[in-house]
Design goal:
The complex is a heterodimer. Chain A has 13 helices and 12 strands. In chain A, a hairpin with a 2-residue loop joins β6 and β7. Chain A is an alpha+beta fold. In chain A, α12 runs antiparallel to α13. By secondary structure, chain B is α+β, with helices and mostly antiparallel strands. Helix content of chain B is 33%, strand content 8%. Chain B contains 10 helices and 5 strands; from the N terminus they run ααααββαβββααααα. Chain B has a 5-stranded mixed β-sheet with strand order 2-1-5-3-4, with helices on both faces. The N terminus of chain B is likely disordered. The chains are: A alpha+beta, B alpha+beta. Chains A and B meet through β1, α1, α2, β3 and α6 of A and α3 and β4 of B.
Amino acid sequence: MAAHDVMPDIELFQPITVEDASAIAARLDGAGWILAGGQDTYGWLKDRAKHPGAMIDLAAIEGINGINATASGISIGAMTTLRDVMRDPLIAEKFPILTQAAGRVASPQIRNQGTLGGNVAQDTRCWYYRRGLSCYRAGGNICYADSPEGMNREHALFGASRCVAVSPSDTATALVAVDATMVIHREGREKRVPAEQFFIGPAINITHMTVLRPGDILTHVEIPNTWANTESYFEKVADRDVWDFALVSIAAVMKTSGGVIDDARIVCGAVECVPRRLRSVEQALRGKPRNEQTADAVAGLASGGARTLNHNQFKVPLMENLVRRALRT
Amino acid sequence: MRSGSSDSYSGAGSLADAGGALAGSSVAAPGLHSQPDSPRTTINPNTIDKRRVLIQTIESPVVSYLKFLPYFKMGAAGVESLAGVRKVNVNVSRRRFIKGVITSSAAAATSSAWYSASAKQRPGGVVERLITLNVNGRKRPVDVLPQETLAYTLRYKLGLTGTKLGCNRGECGACTVVVDDVSHYSCSMLTHSVRGRAVATVEGLQDPSGALHPVQQAFIDELAPQCGYCTPGQLMATVALLKDNPKPTREEARQALSGNLCRCGAYDHYLNAVMRASGQATEVEQNA
């Protein structure tokens, strides 16, 4: 019985520099586990569903925690807690959808402990996978969710490739919308990846949700001013307002002049393994006024190409309705 | 149990602050050798890393000196005696502590061929097990395994069983404690992450004179708890809220307590209590 109730025996490292953390991770290779707030980690460990040999806790590292204004935008340390993100006045002023997204993550205590970096780098919540079953994502050769009797109400509409798991992160949806850049420490060098390319689907790598590899450490999230102070909309639909992951979420930013949309970025969460850009909707919006008629005209484009599973058809109208709501004023 | 740094050491800390919590909701540990209240959570000796226990047991005086050198540098106030590892100044910053440990690891590697051989396999930054926590304003020396959660340390090493474990997965809130005035799920944070931080549990709410904390009194006055299992968590979430926002609106209180499940469904009673504790009228009084 005890096996499922407590943390397993595991080593813990608390380095104080990114270089040390990276070196330890590289040395441990697959056995090392980068630990941020731990809110994704401890479930894996307590369930004995993943078996890393050591945790590398980033909490003591200085310089990757905090929110700073830069010449071109805002830089947020990856170890900044979601509490600090949602309470920051600069973010609230420039990128309110990130404030709202961070404020809708899990529960207050989880936001107090969980970090922005951890939220974007967390693993998917498909329960077959989280249970430790040997599915495709876990290195096996079957998908339990996409089977005749699979329970797949929360699973993907788009981009499935053997695995039908979805992106669980609320902040990831907002960060893709505002065109953020992920700053990664890799082998002593800084690697910068646009948020949209940071997340990867099963067709590219079925066992990883992001481009992060052993030894890589996400250090900062930078948001350029490109979409600062624009019109925006965020909404997350979940079974409960607390704890639950999104059934579908939407993050939209729009540049308008005289009520007409010049440009927009609209992103849906929890419909694909990565935050999904609604490019056809964005395309159709240009030059149109932000109003009810436009909303009705373009909403149907949102779900184009959706491949539903047995229990997730409801996500199609849900997506379309969220697009409508985002475009109403 | 092994001698020295084994888990039997956990009973050595003072339990003076394991006083009563809110009447009827929490029972403090009865004595030094508190027993886990469930066989599922019994400390398993097999989980103790024998190698690391051995390292601590065979440590030479030179290694000990090097290990505590950072504290000597902080002056006499930092260390009360050479043997006084258990009386380390809590003001030592986490950063300095970690630096000290890393330094001592490197220095220790030269002092013994055996130690050197094992140290080569341990990259710098590995944590020290013997640490001192600040719990309810007291220094609590305790031997903490690397993977130990704060809830586990509080309940099974320090005897502070007022903090409850419900789901042990960050999905219920029963284990809520306050760390540096912010609420946290103690089941979902490592004890090693609270070194140098102020941990407050339900046992610390009561005044030394025996008077209940205003939040505890308000909970009683509003008959907030039913079965009481979630109450310590609700109390700590409320304490953190009122520290941050002394006069919350009912909606703000609802948000702040939204991470604490109550399966009796006494949410409105808890919110009444929060409003009373903040010196504001309860909903019933407002409607009267």
